[in-house]
Design brief:
Number of strands: 26
Cofactor: Mg(2+)
Helix content: 10-25%
Shape: elongated
Radius of gyration: 31 Å
Distance between the termini: 46 Å
CATH class of the largest domain: Alpha Beta
Bound molecules: ligand LQZAQKY5, molybdate ion
Number of domains: 4
Strand content: 25-35%
CATH topology of the largest domain: Molybdenum Cofactor Biosythetic Enzyme, Chain A
Number of helices: 8
Family: Belongs to the MoeA family.
Function: Catalyzes the insertion of molybdate into adenylated molybdopterin with the concomitant release of AMP.
Structural class: alpha+beta
Catalytic activity: adenylyl-molybdopterin + molybdate = Mo-molybdopterin + AMP + H(+)
Keywords: Magnesium, Metal-binding, Molybdenum, Molybdenum cofactor biosynthesis, Transferase
């Protein structure tokens, strides 16, 4: 059996993340309807086709008025519609208007319905409120007061949130140019893994088929398939290359035993090993490789190790792929609520919760095969090899599923 080096080849935390971010291809663009734009990243600036608002409109239900009170009511007696641009009113005239209605040409204020009184076709303001509406020219939203046609309202690289989608709709857009998501195929290894029910002795219930695609989607991927491969060299090689995907994410089989085939498959395929392993714990065996124009993210089989390997290396890769700015935008800082040991030469990734004072305390249950600690965590602490003292600032990884 060949013994291959392990510790010496591990890439440190910061370098692994830099390499992963740099491995992402230049973001490509596609057009999607506004209904499908949530969470996507703008590939081109949002430029408004219209002045916003695109006509002077009323901010209140009431009457458009011109000149000093009293005013003679003109126009239809019933409820007015949106109105027609170009129609005007003369000095001493008033016309009913609803919120959002076109303000007639010449009007210099809108008198709110509750601040006016009509008597036999003549309108008068009621009280100081009504006088002020008129004196101050109130309740008219001027055309172009929010933006002028041609203004850039959002820059390329902006993630689309509900208010940004609403803004795009207000500009008259029906489709929007966003960054194309990477197409990701998930490959699960492990002959001992069962996918449903209670596992028997020596069997392990699968943790990845549902959860890993969900985590990948939260990181901005389009998951195109999930396949199981037997612990077999040829099957592993085929799984790395057969799916129509930009990125293959595998679980398990990253070790060097006879039952592990991911590294050998990549070597046989002539893959370029960009990150052979990472100096983190758990998640150390995580690897990133390139085969032609496809990337392979190999996650360890242990569930916590896999999830943290995904955040550590897949996080910056997918962030860069989304075109949404610097990779470390996904990282923050908190105060350590307790002293934390480093990982003796490696960076420790520690699931934690935030106390009432905002400081972070580990959740416990941090074994590489455990999920309980991460399931209860609000953040993951990035504890450098030398550890941190209680009260020290410590970097956090935001959990992409935490919203
Ligand atoms: N001699 C050494 N042994 C190990 C080392 C080492 O450096 N020297 N590293 C350890 C570390 S760290 C990790 S992490 C694991 C990585 O192992 P693999 O990526 O090869 O994963 P497997 O051996 O296939 O599986 C490990 C573990 O995870 C369970 N597993 C696999 N798939 C699933 C799944 N879909 N759902 C739930 N659990 C799964 C599997 O049954 C094993 O228990 O290697 C250490 N060993
Ligand atoms: O990556 Mo392994 O992380 O410790 O089980």
């Amino acid at each position: 059996m060949t013994v291959r080096p392990t510790v010496t080849e591990a890439v440190d935390w910061a370098a692994a993340r830099r390499i992963a971010a740099a491995a992402a291809p230049r973001p490509a663009a596609e057009r999607v309807g506004l209904a499908d734009a949530l969470g996507r990243t703008l590939a081109a600036p949002l430029v408004t086709a219209l002045d916003l608002p695109h006509y002077a409109s009323s901010a209140m239900d009431g009457w458009a008025v011109r000149g000093p009170a009293p005013w003679r009511l003109i126009g239809p007696a019933g409820a007015p519609g949106a109105g027609e641009p170009g129609l005007g009113i003369g000095i001493g005239e008033a016309q009913r208007i609803v919120t959002g209605g076109v303000v007639p040409r010449g009007a210099d204020a809108v008198l709110r319905a509750e601040a006016g009184r009509v008597d036999r076709g003549t309108l008068e303001p009621v009280g100081e409120v009504g006088l002020r509406d008129v004196r101050e020219g109130r309740h008219i939203r001027l055309g172009g007061s929010e933006a002028r046609a041609g203004d850039r309202l959002l820059e390329a690289g902006t993630p689309l949130t509900p208010p940004r989608i609403a803004l795009a709709a207000a500009t008259g857009a029906d489709v929007i140019e966003v960054v194309r998501r990477p197409r990701v195929a998930v490959v699960l290894t492990g002959d001992e893994v069962v996918e449903s029910g209670v596992p028997g002795p020596g069997r392990v219930r699968d943790s990845f088929r549902v959860a890993l695609p969900a985590a990948l989607r939260a990181l901005g991927a389009e998951v195109v398939g999930v396949a199981r491969v037997p612990d077999d060299a040829a099957a592993t090689r085929a799984a790395m290359t057969s799916a129509d995907a930009d990125l293959v994410v595998s679980t398990g089989g990253t070790g060097r035993s006879d039952a592990d085939h991911v590294r050998a498959a990549l070597a046989d395929l002539g893959a370029d090993l960009l990150v052979p392993s990472v100096a983190i714990r758990p998640g150390g065996p995580t690897l990133l490789a390139r085969i032609a124009d496809r990337l392979v993210l190999g996650l360890p089989g242990n569930p916590l190790a896999a999830m943290l390997g995904l955040l550590a290396v897949g996080g910056p890769l997918l962030h860069a792929w989304s075109g949404a700015g610097p990779a470390d935008a996904a990282a923050g800082q908190v105060r350590a609520g307790t002293a934390l040991d480093g990982g003796s030469g490696v960076t420790a990734l520690v699931p934690a919760v935030l106390g009432p004072d905002g400081s972070a305390v580990p959740t416990g249950y941090h074994g590489a095969g455990m999920l309980r600690g991460l399931a209860g965590a609000e953040v993951v602490l990035v504890v450098p090899p030398d550890g941190v003292g209680a009260g020290d600032a410590v970097t956090t990884l935001r959990l992409p599923w935490a919203g």
